[in-house]
Amino acid sequence: MLFWSIEVPYLCVPEIFLDANATTPVLPEISQIVQRLCCNQFGNPSSSHLAGMMPKQIIAEARNAAAQLFRVADGRFIFNSGATEGINTAVLSVLAPYAGKAQEDTVLLYGATEHKAVPEALKHWNQVLGVKAKLLEIPTATNGALNIEFIKAHASKALMLCTMGANNETGVVQDLAAIANAIGGKDKKVPWLVDSVQVLGKVALNLGELPIDYATFSAHKLYGPKGTGCLFIRHGAPYTPLQQGGGQEHGERGGTENVAGIAALARIFDWLIHPQNSPLHSMETLSAYREQLLNALKKLFPELVLNQPYPESLPTTINFSVPGFHSGQIIAMFDAAGIRVSAGSACSKGRPQSFVLKAMGLPSWQCEGAIRLSFGPASSAEFIQMAATRINAMADRKQASEQGRVSGLWIPEPFDVGFAAYADETEKTLYWVGDSEKVKAWLNARFPSNDWCYTNLAPGSYEFGSYQFNVDSAETFRVMHQGTKRTLTLNDKGVALSDSNHTRIETIGPDEVALGNHFLIDVREPLETCMQAAPNFSGEALISERADWCRLALELTNSEIGLPMVAICRSGGRSTTVAALIAALGGPTVLSCDGGVTDVVHLLAAKESVI
């Protein structure tokens, strides 16, 4: 087998991480601080001897740096594990005085686009403490801005108000000054929590001017270690410790302090106080970086639609959707090309959907297709250029791959939608049966209505090429291949495969596939395969996208192959489904690879490196 000839650099490309809103790498300077504190100055800050004095001083200096950065004179900072702990602490602090005292006529106000940590904390403590207040979402406009009039109308009955400085998905920056005015400014009555995770290092936050009672921060969003953060508490705001212990943090958070993490956070604060000594770039530079990446994305997807106010959102965030694509398809493309991006954070009907975009009132296709691309404020010009170059290369490969098979049988969503079609390219006619609405985007992309004539099949029997369609109704029909005599039955849910179909399939590991003595069936989508080709075993492989799986199952024979067949995909799941489909229809034995194409590629790269 000729697997030694694989061009490994093309397949094993260096990773480009463009999901900085989720987390960032620890920068070398921060890493050195953490290592020094962990290994050399490891004393317990609660100890009275000399080894504890230096850690205690480090914590004090970090607290002073936070006060200086956020211009605070009438509040304090408690170091903790991060924003989720801070949010829970703030919510508990506000609701604890009402424990056991039902407050049915009150509300807990929070933005509809908040991180899930906020409504979940509100729901939990409201129930545990027996407060019984009503949780009330603050609606947003299509640009993601909170409805100020709604806040103003409900503030008098609110036990607490929770908003965010900038949204983690869209980068939308809230007008905190307008929210402050809506609740009465410095004379306000309602305690106000602001999730400030995404504003750190990107948007100035003056806690001295704004009447914010609680603000939460996490170090790992700005090149610090995970598990470190802090909570700001305004002087006079109610406070109840979330955890009791040995009196650390002036008795306000029990547990030995994470001195190394706090020192790292202090260095981040120092960068922001003294930008001339910081690796973090200016907003103007970051905006230029974003424009560079957006131009590359528009080359890859000319129909790209932005889901955020542009350019008013965070300069490090791009949130977009592409007509005809759901987010899983786009993530698979980027993953294959070695670029890490993310999708919406909620799930609906098995397909990712952004609850943030849904709250903004955007159409379903945008919510289901949302992609977030984000980079950190310390990203270099070279890194951004490398990312843009990689995306431009993706665009070139995508364009080259879009010439494929058109004629024949197509069943685009075999296990979700009852729909089948036969395309006659000579007559430019598409004969179809089933629920076309659910596959409309796919149809428009593959068979544009200005170029193709659509013919809906009424109940009856029809022959197209090697296929026979037997239509009982729009919800129930059968497709038979007249050569193999295999028949596929579809209902309104598509093809039904039982769990037993899957469990009967034999699986093998990527290491066995990498030996090269198999015929591969690559069941990834075309736009994924063009970004990362399957291992090329001297031509002994075929590519079958989802819309082509049923044709493959009806037609495939092993009489001319002479090798064991293995289905392989991105991560293992689809390969089992395709193998089960072929087996259920009486086709040849197909094994499933329990790893992904990338696993096989890495094994081949290892072989290549020892030659």
From TrEMBL:
InterPro entries named among the record's database cross-references: Aminotrans_V_dom (IPR000192), Aminotrans_V_PyrdxlP_BS (IPR020578), PyrdxlP-dep_Trfase (IPR015424), PyrdxlP-dep_Trfase_major (IPR015421), PyrdxlP-dep_Trfase_small (IPR015422), Rhodanese-like_dom_sf (IPR036873)
Entry annotated with the keyword Cell membrane: no
The Aminotransferase class V domain, residue ranges: 16-384
Domain of life: Bacteria
Reactions this protein catalyses: (sulfur carrier)-H + L-cysteine = (sulfur carrier)-SH + L-alanine
UniProt key word Iron-sulfur: yes
Keywords: Iron, Iron-sulfur, Metal-binding, Pyridoxal phosphate
Entry EC number(s): 2.8.1.7
Needed co-factor(s): pyridoxal 5'-phosphate
GO-annotated molecular function: cysteine desulfurase activity; iron-sulfur cluster binding; metal ion binding
Family: Belongs to the class-V pyridoxal-phosphate-dependent aminotransferase family. NifS/IscS subfamily.
The protein's name: cysteine desulfurase
Source organism of the structure: Aliidiomarina shirensis
